[in-house]
Amino acid sequence: MTTTPERTGRGVVRLAPQDAEFVYREGERHISNATGIYMFDTTAEAAPITGREAVEWMRARLGCSAVFTRTLRRLPWELDYPFWVPDPTLDLTQHVFVEPVDGPGWDAFRGHVSRIAGRPLDLTRPPWELHFLTGVTGIAGLPERMTVAVLRCHHSAGDGIAARDLGLQIFGRDAAHPPVPSTPDAWSLPAELVGAVRRLPAGWRAFRTGLATTGAVSKRVAAEVAAGRIAPPAPRRPATRFNNRITPDLTFDTVRFSPTDIRAVQAVVDGVTFNDVLLTTVSGGLAAYLAEKGETPAGSLAAMVPMSLRGTRPGVAQESGGDRANHLALMSVDLHTDIDDPIERLRAVTASVRAEKHRHRHPDVQAAARRVESSPAWFLAGTTRLLRFRRPPEGTVDAFNTMISNIPWTGDDLVLRNAPLVRSFGLLGIVDGVGLRHLVVSHHGDEIEISFCADTAMMPDTERYGELLRGAFRALVERANRQ
């Protein structure tokens, strides 16, 4: 996991605006964390890992990523973007934890993970935590006894691909780990304030130039829309039970699907991707869940679907790195929940995904989105705070109802000490207005898994939603087989 390389000297790194947004959005009901779950077979271990052993195990891996040893520092009045600063007072006992699970079975395990994933990270320390849950037993289809590692990192330090790669580094079989880089000089708030004040005139000129440039680009985008060459998504969607203020009580569950069945569906609809099939599955499951609650919306729902921009233009790296830590565009994909026939819904979802990908790959759309890059920190921080008070018209939401992200998982040959990895998945925490979020993980084509997080008050019956997702997938496969 890497951060933007814009350096100011002394090992200090200034965040890119796209990464700083995650810091500015952070709040009691908007927690920008990524959580990876790694389940290791410890049936043959004589004794579980202890707190002291876990700390020393992690100490040897601190050089794998700067996220482990840097903390965020912000300037008064947001005179500049936050900085990653080496933390000379790093105390691993505040980041690495070991706790036994208090009972067998999925529910006991899920309760521990939910409490961990639902808490904010302390942004006054390096923004990560590693929890080891020992004595995990009684989960169907998994080893008799497991230790589960729960790795949490703040989104300002990297996107989902970066978070995945971080797990690959620390749980890889390679016993040699890079050393922690030396940082000879300390952070100086007065020095950074002086530097920020000196940069204000140049920053103001860049802001004005950026406004003029992106304003002209936005006019070209509007002309493309008017000519029918770009299709923007609907700005409003009907609100559901998941589009309200959340509570601190998070829950989650997972469902798995056969790649063979997904390929069978692909065979009957041209140009359909794995992700299109899974978006359609979520569409069917969500529509069925709301119907059972007597809450069928008066119109189609939509999903925020992150799209990787890696390698799509200069300055956006093909791999981790580049000029910022997060390399994403946020598509708003119509889920066509108002179409009953599964195959017709799939065709419609596929067309909507293509339209959004085409829109976000358009050079003028990308240029218009870069307005944030020339925005002063105080302006971006202020507008982000104001957005918390914005309310769409009654009974509607802005652009989307849920989130569906996709990460190709790699490196299943991971270990914790000598215990092999047997299962892994990720969780996307919920935020105000989006109390249901999904993460699709593909494991080398052998298994496709959807994890979903929800506010317990909004979805007290995650098992039922899982059944409806599986039912929506079966209906899609059966309908494809009759084509």
Provide structural commentary:
The protein is an alpha+beta fold and 483 residues long. The protein has two domains: 7-195, Chloramphenicol Acetyltransferase; 232-410 and 437-481, Chloramphenicol acetyltransferase-like domain (Chloramphenicol Acetyltransferase), CATH 3.30.559.10. The chain has helices at residues 17-25, 51-59, 106-117, 160-171, 189-226, 259-266, 274-292, 342-361, 363-369, 377-387, 462-481; strands at 7-9, 12-14, 33-41, 70-73, 83-86, 96-100, 128-137, 145-154, 236-238, 250-257, 302-308, 328-334, 396-398, 402-409, 415-416, 419-428, 436-443, 447-455. The strands form four sheets. A six-stranded mixed sheet has the order 6-7-8-3-16-15, sandwiched between helices. Strand 7 (128-137) and strand 8 (145-154) form a beta hairpin. Mean pLDDT is 87; it is low at 1-9 and 313-322.
Please, how many domains?
A: 2
Known CATH architecture of the largest domain: 2-Layer Sandwich
Mean pLDDT: 87
Reported by name, the CATH topology of the largest domain is Chloramphenicol Acetyltransferase
Taking all Cα atoms into account, the compactness measure Rg is 23 Å
Number of helical segments with 4 or more residues: 11
CATH class of the largest domain reads Alpha Beta
Outline, from the CA principal axes?
globular
CATH superfamily of the largest domain: Chloramphenicol acetyltransferase-like domain
Rounded to the nearest angstrom, the distance between the terminal CA atoms is: 45 Å
Please list the strands of the largest sheet in the order they lie side by side. 6-7-8-3-16-15
Q: What is the H/E string? A: EEHEHEEEHEEHHEEHHEEHHHEEEEEEH
Low-confidence stretches: 1-9, 313-322
Question: How large a portion of the residues is in β-strands, by DSSP E?
Answer: 15-25%
Can you summarize the main beta sheet? 6 strands, mixed
Task: Tell me the total number of β-strands.
Answer: 18
By secondary-structure content and strand pairing, the structural class works out as alpha+beta
**What portion of residues is helical?**
25-40%
